[in-house]
Specification:
The protein has 237 residues and is α/β, with parallel strands linked by helices. It has eight helices and five strands. Helix 2 (40-56) crosses helix 6 (158-167) and helix 3 (84-97) crosses helix 4 (115-121).
Length: 237
């Protein structure tokens, strides 16, 4: 099990800083179409942290999850809370620079919209491949053991719906699932910048949830967990 930073005294924390890596989960509160919960990215992040803790708990110092992050592209939909990229960048920089005694920090997020802030903060980080594909689907390949017959989609489509069916099927409403924008992600950048997700998808979905299933979700989660373990080991060296 990981050591949770909130349970430690200052002296205990100083001891942990010597040989532990601080892991800071970053969630999001944003719409995920009519069929998935607004905390989808937070649920996925939590599940991956739990898996990381099972394998590396003896070297992991866990911070509380940052629940709200950068989701401005979803702001025109109800159920979205966002601090924006600039403020999130400042927050991440503050976390990593205010204590010079901490040598290693790993941010973990399942929300692709946080990627610009992570890059701007210039600190070790990891974004699950589920959401690297959100930003650059053309460059992303699902590992062979998790590859289905579908093309990767970006937001609240088959990918995330399958993952949530594996994690929290009680929160998935397949009877409400509808397709959204299914065109090229690279061609919608300007529209997203000006009009957000609603500019290309009235449903708030990028992709198509049709065909989502628990088995694919489990395979995707396993692949993501493997990537996270590898990255944790690299940061912890």
């Amino acid at each position: 099990m990981p050591t949770e930073i909130a349970d430690l005294t200052r002296l205990e924390l100083e001891e942990c800083f010597r040989d532990h890596t601080l892991v800071v989960p970053v969630g999001s509160i944003e719409q995920h179409g009519p069929h998935l919960p607004i905390g989808t990215d937070s649920h996925i992040t939590t599940a991956l942290i739990e898996e990381l803790s099972r394998h590396r708990g003896d070297r992991l110092l866990l911070a509380p999850q940052i629940p709200i992050s950068a989701s401005d592209e979803h702001a025109s939909f109800q159920g979205t809370l966002s601090m924006g990229t600039a403020l999130l960048t400042s927050l991440l920089k503050a976390i990593t620079t205010n204590d010079r005694s901490r040598p290693r920090t790993l941010f973990v997020s399942a929300h692709g919209g946080n990627l610009p802030a992570f890059l701007a903060a210039s600190q070790p980080f990891w974004v699950p491949r589920t959401h690297v594909l959100v930003e650059a689907a053309a460059q992303w390949e699902l590992p062979a053991d998790a590859r289905g017959i579908w093309e990767p989609d970006a937001h609240a489509g088959r990918t995330e719906t399958s993952v949530m069916l594996a994690l929290r099927p009680d929160l998935v409403h397949l009877d409400r699932a509808i397709p959204g924008y299914r065109g090229s992600l690279s061609s919608m950048g300007a529209i997203l910048a000006s009009d957000g997700i609603r500019g290309v998808s009235a449903s708030g979905v990028l992709g198509d949830p049709a065909g989502a299933n628990r088995e694919e979700g489990l395979a995707i989660l396993a692949a993501l967990a493997t990537d996270l373990l590898r990255t944790f080991d690299q940061v912890s060296r």
